[in-house]
Amino acid sequence: MTQRIDKALIAEQNDKLMPALLEDYDALARKLARQDIDIERITKQAELFQIAIPSWGTGTGGTRFARFPGEGEPRNIFEKLEDSAVINDLSQATERVSPHFPWDKVDDFKELKQYSDSLNLKWDSINSNTFQDQQDQQHSYKYGSLSNTSEAAREQAIEHNVECIKWGKILGSKTLTVWVGDGSNHPGQQHFQHAFERYLNSMKKIYAELPAGWELHIEHKMFEPAFYSTVIQDWGSNILAAMELGPQAKSLVDLGHHAPNVNIEMIVSRLIQFKKLGGFHFNDSKYGDDDLDSGSLHPYQQFLIFNELVDAQYRKQEGFNPNYMLDQSHNVTDPIESLINSAASVQRSYVAALLVNRPALTDYQLNNDALMASNTLKEAFHTDVTPILAMARARKGGAIDPIRTYRQSAYRATVAKQRPNSGGNGSGIV
Amino acid sequence: MTQRIDKALIAEQNDKLMPALLEDYDALARKLARQDIDIERITKQAELFQIAIPSWGTGTGGTRFARFPGEGEPRNIFEKLEDSAVINDLSQATERVSPHFPWDKVDDFKELKQYSDSLNLKWDSINSNTFQDQQDQQHSYKYGSLSNTSEAAREQAIEHNVECIKWGKILGSKTLTVWVGDGSNHPGQQHFQHAFERYLNSMKKIYAELPAGWELHIEHKMFEPAFYSTVIQDWGSNILAAMELGPQAKSLVDLGHHAPNVNIEMIVSRLIQFKKLGGFHFNDSKYGDDDLDSGSLHPYQQFLIFNELVDAQYRKQEGFNPNYMLDQSHNVTDPIESLINSAASVQRSYVAALLVNRPALTDYQLNNDALMASNTLKEAFHTDVTPILAMARARKGGAIDPIRTYRQSAYRATVAKQRPNSGGNGSGIV
Amino acid sequence: MTQRIDKALIAEQNDKLMPALLEDYDALARKLARQDIDIERITKQAELFQIAIPSWGTGTGGTRFARFPGEGEPRNIFEKLEDSAVINDLSQATERVSPHFPWDKVDDFKELKQYSDSLNLKWDSINSNTFQDQQDQQHSYKYGSLSNTSEAAREQAIEHNVECIKWGKILGSKTLTVWVGDGSNHPGQQHFQHAFERYLNSMKKIYAELPAGWELHIEHKMFEPAFYSTVIQDWGSNILAAMELGPQAKSLVDLGHHAPNVNIEMIVSRLIQFKKLGGFHFNDSKYGDDDLDSGSLHPYQQFLIFNELVDAQYRKQEGFNPNYMLDQSHNVTDPIESLINSAASVQRSYVAALLVNRPALTDYQLNNDALMASNTLKEAFHTDVTPILAMARARKGGAIDPIRTYRQSAYRATVAKQRPNSGGNGSGIV
Amino acid sequence: MTQRIDKALIAEQNDKLMPALLEDYDALARKLARQDIDIERITKQAELFQIAIPSWGTGTGGTRFARFPGEGEPRNIFEKLEDSAVINDLSQATERVSPHFPWDKVDDFKELKQYSDSLNLKWDSINSNTFQDQQDQQHSYKYGSLSNTSEAAREQAIEHNVECIKWGKILGSKTLTVWVGDGSNHPGQQHFQHAFERYLNSMKKIYAELPAGWELHIEHKMFEPAFYSTVIQDWGSNILAAMELGPQAKSLVDLGHHAPNVNIEMIVSRLIQFKKLGGFHFNDSKYGDDDLDSGSLHPYQQFLIFNELVDAQYRKQEGFNPNYMLDQSHNVTDPIESLINSAASVQRSYVAALLVNRPALTDYQLNNDALMASNTLKEAFHTDVTPILAMARARKGGAIDPIRTYRQSAYRATVAKQRPNSGGNGSGIV
């Protein structure tokens, strides 16, 4: 357990940074007070914000061309949990971890649960994996899993998902996220309708195994690994599938899985309206499913998505309770640093969206005052909420400047020694 | 009536071209016979193919930057019908015309019906227009029509659609197509959910006025004239709206209204599967809603769409009966030539799709033989069906080479004299 | 002259807002001081920032579908100058106006120059127009202007550009910006190489007429009005043309004229490196050349572009002296408000880019510390520089809150009475 | 050598198919004769057409998510050559193989040359690889190769390229193709200009080692593996680099390496015009660098590219002599089948482009007859040139139906037994 970040180190670092933080925080408090916003109410909400860490995100990612491993990468789910605990130590916003099976499969799930409890970590959505062949696997997924033309392959994929639910129950999870790589690379390869029907039939069998209180999240993706068509290519197919399955089925939005130029915040609104928004995989992208760090390229888009989410909360929209999770590929950074940074980036969007003057916005909308409506959002976005984020972390025992404190801790160098055979397979691929 | 194409001219031209056509047709017949395809069965289906002409397409189109009118443009719906009759004289595949109101509004719709009867033309889907302000209009659509925040503007837009139905009944149409320009140019300008709710409520009122046997077709568009969001931005919002409205509401696919890279043939398949494919606006595009001539850039995409349509026909898919219509902007060509050419281009895709060996394709699909599945489609696509198209036209009294015959007819020069004040507003804008 | 914004009104409004501004400004000064940044140095640079107003931007824009005019639109270049003066009264960052010929053509250019002098306005780049046909024009540009297959049409277009230079000399401009709509809508319509050769030959003739000290700016555009190909489609063709012409020819970057996903800040860097960055047309877009308000959708992209510009300034890059100009289409807002707002938005990016810690950034870059390099940019971007912008305006006599003061002034209502026949053609089309 | 396709099998299969082929060929000959085209002249040119096979393409490709190996994959360059020989046996259009180092590195390059000679195969362009780290490599390419901030890493990458030239000389190659994965994933990570300067300096050192008669081909790629920026992101940076280096440096066009919607045939024209078209990597794609089978999705685009190439040939454009090569990732098909099929697909575009009536096209272009210009291209494209392709193969000893004959040969099953440990690394990644 010595690898975790020493509380004394955090405290020492925070002590140095606190005077400046207090000065900025007070200035912001006065500014917000002039807008009739109580900074303490916002900071409280910032403290409550949580976003899950994907277990696989703690390893270095790569592309089909290469993977350049970093040092001290976690070699199994226990070490991934260690790294996740460090992230939460510093960020205080990531107490949940989302596992990926069979990558994170263990012999004794109760032991795994005890270990996560000991780290004060909880389990988020379970991710099944039927887009790769495992060594001992009977039927290949080369031509699909839940939509495969072979019934045996479909049954195998269904069975894997049912197992994931079983393991998730032990871990205390409440959600199964299903993303499949099924699709085609050639026109004609697949009969679109028959493939979708097979997919729906398979999903119905999985849905039937869902415990009460659980949700089944469907993830769509426009392309990759299939490059001509995918079975759940967009939110349209996604919501139709969720509607076919029933109320426990919802749609999950991964920010990188859309066609170019698509208005994602509008899709979020549609899913909210039809009570089908299950959750998010946050990341950023420029060209395709780039899986870059959340908010690193399009911070205003991230804000606009949270504008929809906070608005739904504000309107007390029925059935609104989405999951937040990061899903990124860290190819050139220390994964721990990127995850800390990205959690804060998403949290920043959430906090800024809390500052939007909603009654004024409604007024501008009803009067078609496009300019002032836009400026109302921008005023919130321009507000530098860094002091709120830092204060929320500090009050919960986290770091005011988590990257600096992490580097001071020398955690990476320490685990590099303890994980000599890291850099292998199974980690970091998103 | 002297403007129409002289049957003697057509016959004379066809006589010259017939020997070569017969030689090619016979060679193709022998080739198809080796594939167990009876060319006569295909030619018969080609003869039955129909695609509607948009009345506005007979004028020269333009962009926000400029419109460069051609000579002899039609100045009203009567002259548009004349031009449409010429197109059908030559192409024999375009006996229906789709009007646009109020552009084509007349004082006496019965007179208009008599005129179209006299030209052997029928009326296709009625297009309402609430994306422009008319001179005598009480409430502006600057900030939307069916989703406007003003109830008065919404009611005005509803009323216009109800009138369109009324006029359509006189003309013998059976479909109302609703496309609105509603949307926003600024984040925050519109509350996405409230705007969509207002849109749905307005559409419900229109739907309630739909006569038995009619369909209401909803057209989505990703952008333009609104550039940040549109109320019906994609097939997802489209099908949800159609489902909310009821069985007489269906989705219309305009090939140019999608995000870049989107797999349109797959959307067609999804709409077929959920019994919501209402019809098409055919055109081609490279960058946005370019409204280029159908099949001029992406002939294989057009073929793949017809592969889905012919497959649905082949499988006797329930509730499958879509409308076909051209919807193009002819900025640099004679609109009559482009419409003749494009009707033949769409017909070419249909005929080629009829040649697909579907039992073999099914086999390849079930065996995941991606390469041979792809080649099965390509074999049909590579087949030069020009002789079938030409023969189908010739047998029905149309022209073997319709562009050549049209130019020989000097129709354009003739109407240029008869329509001295053409080149004005109201035509060609798509 | 009574239409202009009363200085007393500005002063009165500023007086009310000054106490809060001072509080925020002081807090920001202290925060920046901790980063060793002297706020006064930054504010001084903010005061010097200038961006030109496009004369046509003062009218309401539209699309090929419709234009919804606002009230009191300027009816000629004199009224456009009045509106521009108002924008500068309030923003104090827009003392230059860019005219568009023949839209802004007058009989007596000296009189026009006297009028602009009287308003303390200067003239920015001259824009020629060979993408529309004018009423008295001998040769049509339907099939192109500088690249037309007809020599007479090309000569006419060249002659127009030479006239533009002549008028620009009277007005005191130093730049001619050439954007043409030349291109094609059909594969095969144009011989790509021959069209480009004709374009280059025409441009060489214009270049030969360029006075000493002038620059010729070439603007590329991927599509619209031509939808299959354009003669100067991207920065590649643009820079090659500029290199063929000579040192006075440079490339102009319009933010909306690129393919989806393109990294525009990188293009800016390349043009700087090869000494060919002439200037900018600022606007924002989501789907195509949407011409939305600058920074309204992608504020971080705008910042990243200014990061390149400030970096070039910092490195004292040879030959670096680009023009800044807005080029937007205001379809749903008061154009004056949008132009004020957008000038401030661009200025915001500039000021934020000044805050980047460049020595630290260089260090991170050399050490491949991608995360901290990214965070260094983000730290500057997150800083709310609103107080600097407001203070810079106030110190120069502009408005702390220019939109509010503008609305208080009732300028629009005043001119609405004075411009009874506004809402006509020639304005607002971008 | 028993693995190669038995000539007797080919002859036997061809004998069965020849009567039908002759019938179709004769019919096509008559049709072309009516257009004054001598089919024999076209068939002769088809026989001369050659396109290189990428050595790595003979293995199954994959994505970052998974690779699903096929059976009997080649385990080294000798087995890749065997497979290439089979492809050429059947297609008679692929006598050159393009190697990739260090993947295809051997101890004795003379032995390799002797082996390729024995198979009647020649060597195409040499591909260097500095986008992966090799096991024994001193400096990592994680942060770039030719543009790395570390001089030692740059020198290592330069040295590798110089070695590639050395090996290529032994093999009889005349071209080095350089594609690097250099770029960045975060704004700020890289200084764009400095990175490009480092790249250019490295390339100058490689260029200096180029033997007389060799060419250096630069390949650009918009993204992947770098997801925010790449050093040679588009044809603009590519041609500028080639111009900086000198006349032996040219640009290579990979069809999948462009932004969405980009007009690639126009880029081809520009490179031809500026004497910088080095060659092609043919493949097809829908979403990104999908590396699908050439012409499988966009056959008309492929034709339009060949329309430019044949036009340059027709105009005897100076310095025009591009390399053709396939570069695809075969994830769901037998790579040999895909390569045979794709070579024929590219050849089909070439042959169809030969049929374009160029004098007529020129006439239509000069008269701005967009419709007939478009139809002139379409007439050639619609012509089913399958009989020409088959006859060209048959006359050279290849297979009329190469896929069918390949399957009859049971080659794959045979090598599957001889290559027990296939399915490993190093193959198929594109």
Short overview:
Chain A is of the alpha/beta class and 430 residues long. In chain A, 48% of the residues lie in helices and 8% in strands. Chain A has 15 helices and eleven strands.
Describe the structure.
The structure is a homotetramer of 430-residue chains. Chain A has 430 residues and is α/β, with parallel strands linked by helices. Chain A has a single domain (7-418), classed as Divalent-metal-dependent TIM barrel enzymes (TIM Barrel). In chain A, 48% of the residues lie in helices and 8% in strands. Chain A has 15 helices and 11 strands. In chain A, the strands form 3 sheets. Chain A has a 6-stranded parallel sheet. In chain A, strand 5, helix 5 (151-171) and strand 6 (175-178) form a beta-alpha-beta unit. In chain A, helix 1 (7-34) crosses helix 13 (386-395), helix 5 runs parallel beside helix 6 and helix 8 (264-273) runs parallel beside helix 9 (299-314). The longest helix of chain A has 28 residues, at 7-34. Chain A is globular and about 65 Å long. The mean pLDDT of chain A is 96. Chains A and B meet through helix 6, helix 7, helix 8, helix 9 and helix 11 of A and helix 6, helix 7, helix 8, helix 9 and helix 11 of B.
Percent helix range of chain A = 40-55%
SSE pattern of chain A, N- to C-terminal? HHEHEEHEEHEEHEEHEHEHHHHHHH
Query: How many domains, in number, for the residues of chain A?
Result: 1
Number of strand elements of chain A? 11
Oligomer: homotetramer
Span from first to last CA of chain A?
27 Å
**The CATH topology of chain A:** TIM Barrel
Kindly report the greatest chain-chain contact and the residue count on each side: A-B, 59 and 59 residues
Name of the CATH superfamily of chain A = Divalent-metal-dependent TIM barrel enzymes
